[in-house]
Amino acid sequence: MILAGIDIGTNALRLLIAEMRKKGSRVEFRPIHEERRITRLGEGLVNSGRLSPPAIARTLQALKEFHAVVTEHPVDKVIAVATSAVREAGNRQLFLDRLREETGLEAEVILGEEEARRTLKGVRYGLRADDRNIFVMDIGGGSTEWMVVTDGEIRGMKTVGIGVVKLTDRALASDPLSDADQHRLIRGIEETIGPILKSLGSFSGHRLIGTAGTVTTLAALELGMTVYEASRVQNTSLGLEQIEAWYRTLVGMSLNERRGLAGLEKGREDLIIPGTALLMTAMRLLGAREVVVSEYGLKEGILIDWFEKNVAN
Questions:
Q1: Angle at the Cα of 93 (from 90 to 99), degrees rounded to 5?
Q2: C-alpha distances in Å from residue 258, one per residue of 264, 270, 285
Q3: What's residue 279's pLDDT?
Q4: Measured between alpha carbons, how far apart are the two ends of the chain, in Å?
Q5: Alpha-carbon dihedral angle through residues 297, 302, 304, 307, given to the nearest 10 degrees
Q6: What's the predicted TM-score (pTM) here?
Q7: How far apart are CA 55 and CA 246, in angstroms?
Q8: Region 169-197: what's the mean pLDDT?
Q9: What whole-number distance in Å separates Cα of residue 257 and Cα of residue 241?
Q10: CB 230 within 8 A of CB 213
Q11: Chain-centre distance for alpha carbon 58
Q12: Where are the alpha helices (DSSP H) in 42-141?
């Protein structure tokens, strides 16, 4: 069976078309086509509470192009989900109506806990059997999720309404970022995520796994990639000292200087600073010395979850 999954995120859109099958007790898939577009659907949402007309227009145009790609393949089912920006927006129904009218796509708006559950399915698929004791962090555009697996069982899932787009809108008031703005950024992150991480229990004995654009971009920067290679990024380990060094480098550069960095995706030149600050702060609070990078996440989890529910079982 061929499925297409579309992740309509606060910052980026992701498309995955894959051939799905059941092998024994396990669901497996073979990727056929993948795309990612940064459209910043949630830009300005933190201040207005609404999706802006330019952000809607950018996102719908990209989704029209995704839909055109889907129609070029023998896809049996399209599963589209919308996350933080759409679920929080006062005009979300307007966006969903226009999405249906202009692209033919119907999107399910999922809560943070459901986003975490499906993301975890994708991450664990990429880790294969090495997933019995993991602490997963998914840094999104509008929210961040944490998932804890102990002895192979899910022990906790939490979501908090901060992500790279929201933090950029709130905290990046200077370029390069001033010492005062850096202090406010880190302090705000600590105050927001500290209680969440504490509520999830001890990190001892777990590996920290990071998924989504911030951690994959940091891996690409560390590897000096001029062309992004997902296979090289998957399972790369980044030490806390490396992440701290990248944070110091990035905040010391102007927006234009960051645009020239090999491995930094276009459109992420400002977002990489709050994303790195969020990852770095979480690692310090957890006492984690390294993070393992996962290329797998929500877009894979969307397909695995639907196939398990509707076909495999």
A1: 130
A2: 8, 8, 27
A3: 96
A4: 14
A5: 180
A6: 0.90
A7: 29
A8: 89
A9: 22
A10: no
A11: 19
A12: 45-48, 53-71, 84-88, 92-103, 112-127
